[in-house]
Design brief:
- The complex is a heterodimer of chains A (161) and B (413).
- Helix content of chain A is 44%, strand content 11%.
- Chain A has 7 helices and 4 strands, in the order H-H-H-H-E-H-H-E-E-E-H.
- Chain A is elongated, with a radius of gyration of 18 Å.
- Chain A starts with 10 loop residues before the first helix and ends with a helix.
- Chain B is 43% helix and 13% strand.
- The chains are: A alpha+beta (161), B alpha/beta (413).
- The interface between A and B is large, with 40 and 53 residues.
Chain lengths: 161, 413
C-alpha cells in the first residue's frame, strides 16, 4: 500500500467532494458518493484513501471503515484492469451460470476472487444484478452482458484491452 | 388493456425529453398544480394504487401518514435499489422511460410537500444511472425541475444517490441509513419513516414502478386506473419473468390475470416443450408454488395470498421439470446468508445455520431430522427481527422443504 501513502483526489475530485458536502444536511451522507469518487479515480479504496475521506468529511476513520466494508462494490484491494462478475443467483443458475463460470475459470486460468498474472482480469461471482431476463449474464466493469454463450464470452474478452 | 407503464417501451429514444413530450409527457403537471396536495392524495387513494416494490401497501395511505404540520423539510426517497432475485422491471422503466419516473416523482413530491427527492439507485445499475442522470438534466433545462416549476410556484430538486452493493438497502429504512452514509442497517419501526425518516425528518419511500404509475392516474383520473384489475387489486403491474420460459422479459398485465395465461400467452410457455414444475411468483423471497397450485391462481394480491404466497415485486421465476429443487434452494440460501446485514441475532445466526444444513444436504451428507431442523430454524427467524429479511429467507426455505419434501428426503437417504 506504500504507493498510496498520502492519498489525495485530483483537483476536480476534491471540488466534487465540496459540492457533495453542500448537498446533504449531514456531512456523513456524502460518504458513499465520496467513496465512489475515490474508487472511480483509483480503482480501489486503500486504507490511506479511507482516512483521506474521513479527514475530508470530518468523520472518525472507524466510521468510514464501518460503512466502507459493509458494501461489496467497494474494492479493498487492487483488481485487474477488467473486473468480470458472473451472476450465480437463482435465475442465472437455472440458465446455466455454473457452466459459464467453469468456462471462464478455464479460459482465464484463475479461480473466482483471483486476478490473471498479466493483471488484465479479475474474476468474481455476484448476487442478482437485475437482468434475469437475459440469464445467464455477467457484468464487466459495470457493463452488462446477457444471454451468454462460449462464443459470446470469447468475443467480449477479445474486445477488452 | 391500455398500456400504462410500458406504453413507451417500444418508442425510439423514449428516454429523451423530446420523444417523451411527443407522447404527452409531463401533461399531468398542469392538472397537478391546479389542485391542492390533499386532493392529489385523495385521488391516489381512490385509484387503489399499492406499492409495487413488494410490500403492496396502499400508496395514498402511506402519503397520508406524513404529519399534518410537518415543518420542513419533508423528503421523498425513490427506491431504485432493485435487487430481489428475479426482478428487473424497475431497470426497464429507468432505461426506457426515465421521464415517466421523473414526472411521477414531481407528483409524489407535490402531494407530500417535499422539495428534495433522493433517488437511491443500486450501484450496479450504472447504465440506468447514466440514462436517468441525463433525463434529470433535460428536465432541469426545461424547468420541469428546479425553482418555480412551469411558473407554478413549486420547487423540486432531484439528487441521484448510488448504492454500492447490498441487497438489504432495498428495505426502506435500510435505504435511509445508506443515504445517511451508514451501513445499510434497517431501523426499528415505529417511528415510521413518514414521521421520522431521512435525517430524522418525515420521509416517504416509494418504488420506481409505483411512481411511474402516477402520471396516468393524475392525467386520466383515479377511476380510469381503478377500472383495470380486480376489485381489490387495482391497476396494472409489471411482471418480470425469467427461468424456463420461451420469452423471458418484462410485461405489463392487468392485475387478476391467470398465472398460467401469463406464462403461456405472454412469456411464450415453457421452453423446449418441457412441463412446468414450480413457480416463484413474486421475487425469490415469496413462497414457491407447485405446478398444481399455479394452475388456477390469479396474479393479484388476494388470489396469491389465498395460496399462501405473494405478488411481491412481480419477479416471476419459472422452473421446468428438470430442476433439482434441493440445489435451487441451496442457491437461494447462499444468497440470503451472504446478504443478511448481521444486525439481528435470529437472522445473522439463523442464515448461517440454514446454509450449513443446506450445504450438507446438497453435498449428500444430510442427516435424519435435518428437514425438520430447517423448518424449526426458519420458524425461529420469522417475525423476530427488525426487518422482514429473515422472513424473506425463511419463506422460500419452508415452502421448498414442505412442498418438495420427497426430493429432499431422497437426497438425505
Amino acid at each position: 500500500m506504500t504507493d498510496d501513502m498520502n492519498f489525495t483526489l485530483s483537483k476536480e475530485g476534491e471540488e466534487k467532494i465540496g459540492t457533495l458536502l453542500k448537498r446533504y444536511p449531514s456531512t456523513r451522507a456524502a460518504l458513499l458518493p465520496a467513496l465512489w469518487l475515490v474508487q472511480d479515480e483509483a480503482g480501489w479504496i486503500s486504507d490511506e484513501a479511507a482516512e483521506y475521506v474521513a479527514a475530508k468529511l470530518d468523520l472518525p476513520a472507524a466510521e468510514v471503515y464501518g460503512t466502507l466494508t459493509f458494501y461489496t462494490m467497494f474494492n479493498r484491494r487492487k483488481l485487474g484492469r477488467h473486473h468480470i462478475e458472473v451472476c450465480t443467483n437463482i435465475c442465472c443458475w437455472l440458465k446455466g451460470s455454473e457452466e459459464i463460470l467453469t468456462y471462464l475459470k478455464a479460459k482465464l486460468g484463475i479461480n473466482e476472487g483471483e486476478t490473471t498474472e498479466d493483471g488484465k482480469f479479475t474474476l468474481s461471482t455476484v448476487e442478482c444484478l437485475g437482468a434475469c431476463g437475459e440469464a445467464p449474464m455477467m457484468m464487466v466493469d459495470l457493463e452488462y452482458y446477457g444471454d451468454l454463450t462460449h462464443d459470446k464470452i470469447d468475443e467480449i474478452l477479445k474486445s477488452l484491452n | 388493456m391500455e398500456q400504462i407503464l410500458t406504453q413507451n417501451f417500444k418508442v425510439l429514444n423514449a428516454c429523451r425529453l423530446n420523444a417523451y413530450l411527443g407522447r404527452e409527457g409531463y401533461k399531468s403537471l398542469h392538472k397537478l398544480f391546479s389542485q391542492q396536495s390533499s386532493q392529489i392524495i385523495e385521488e391516489v387513494k381512490k385509484s387503489g394504487l399499492r406499492g409495487r416494490g413488494g410490500a403492496g401497501f396502499p400508496t395514498g395511505m402511506k402519503w397520508g401518514f406524513i404529519p399534518k404540520d410537518p415543518g420542513s423539510p419533508v423528503y421523498l426517497c425513490v427506491n431504485a435499489d432493485e435487487g430481489e432475485p428475479g426482478t428487473f422491471k424497475d431497470r426497464a422503466l429507468l432505461e426506457k422511460d426515465p421521464h415517466r419516473l421523473i414526472e411521477g416523482i414531481i407528483i409524489a413530491a407535490y402531494a407530500i410537500g417535499a422539495r428534495e427527492a433522493f433517488v437511491y439507485i443500486r450501484g450496479e445499475f450504472y447504465r440506468p444511472y447514466k440514462i436517468l442522470e441525463a433525463a434529470v438534466s433535460e428536465a432541469y433545462a426545461n424547468n420541469f425541475l428546479g425553482k418555480n416549476i412551469l411558473g407554478r410556484g413549486f420547487d423540486l430538486d432531484i439528487y441521484i444517490h448510488r448504492g454500492a452493493g447490498a441487497y438489504i438497502c432495498g428495505e426502506e429504512t435500510s435505504l435511509i441509513s445508506s443515504i445517511e452514509g451508514k451501513r445499510g442497517y434497517p431501523k426499528i419501526k415505529p417511528p415510521f419513516p413518514a414521521v421520522k425518516g431521512l435525517f430524522g425528518r418525515p420521509t416517504i419511500v416509494n418504488n420506481v414502478e409505483t411512481l411511474a404509475a402516477l402520471p396516468f392516474i393524475i392525467s386520466n383520473g383515479a377511476a380510469a386506473y381503478a377500472a383495470i384489475g380486480t376489485e381489490k387489486s387495482k391497476g396494472s403491474k409489471l411482471i418480470s419473468v425469467s427461468g424456463h420460459v420461451a420469452r423471458p422479459g418484462v410485461y405489463e398485465i392487468p392485475l387478476g390475470l391467470p398465472l398460467i395465461t401469463f406464462i403461456n400467452e405472454y412469456a411464450g410457455g415453457i421452453r423446449n416443450g418441457k412441463r412446468l414444475k414450480a413457480v416463484i411468483p413474486g421475487g425469490s423471497s415469496v413462497p414457491v408454488l407447485t405446478s398444481l397450485e399455479a394452475k388456477d391462481v390469479l396474479l393479484d394480491y388476494e388470489s396469491l395470498a389465498s395460496k399462501g404466497t405473494m405478488l411481491g415485486s412481480g419477479g416471476m421465476i419459472v422452473m421446468d421439470e428438470s430442476v433439482d429443487m434441493v440445489k435451487a434452494l441451496k442457491v437461494l440460501v447462499d444468497f440470503y446468508h451472504h446478504e443478511s446485514c448481521g444486525q439481528c441475532t435470529p437472522c445473522r445466526e439463523g442464515s448461517g445455520w440454514l446454509k450449513k444444513i443446506m450445504d450438507r444436504i446438497e453435498s449428500g451428507h444430510g442427516r435424519d431430522g435435518d428437514l425438520d431442523l430447517l423448518i424449526n430454524v426458519s420458524d425461529n427467524m420469522m417475525g423476530k427481527t427488525i426487518c422482514v429479511f429473515a422472513d424473506a429467507m425463511a419463506m422460500p426455505v419452508k415452502s421448498f422443504v414442505t412442498k418438495f419434501r420427497k426430493e429432499f428426503e431422497d437426497k438425505i437417504n
